[in-house]
Amino acid sequence: MIRWMKAIAGALGRALAAATGRRDGAGGKVADLSRHRRRRRLAAAFAAPAGTEPDRGSGRCSRCRKEARRLTFYVDEAGRPAGFCKDCEVHAKRRGLLPL
Ligand SMILES: [Zn+2]
After folding, report:
1. Which of 19, 88, 98, 99 is the most buried (most CB within 10 A)?
2. Residues in the 5 Å CB sphere of ion ligand 1
3. Taking a C-beta distance cutoff of 8 angstroms, is the pair 52, 45 a contact?
């Protein structure tokens, strides 16, 4: 029984390793490219006139809600773009958010 389970687990582990290995094996280049693409896609989504991001245009910081002439955009933990004023940018960086 235990031997049987071990065999299944082993096969599953090998299959998983093969699948993830192949994905990683495609090269760090691909990962970098997709990350770059994602960032560009997010930037494009942000630039779209569709009212998906209310902070856009209003010029308000996503953190302190104060009006800011210059907002720096980051991707928050939920993968949503967020604009930060100069003061809050420090906090965004501390949180490890990715700049757009
Ligand atoms: Zn702010």
Report:
1. 88
2. 61, 63-64, 85, 88
3. yes
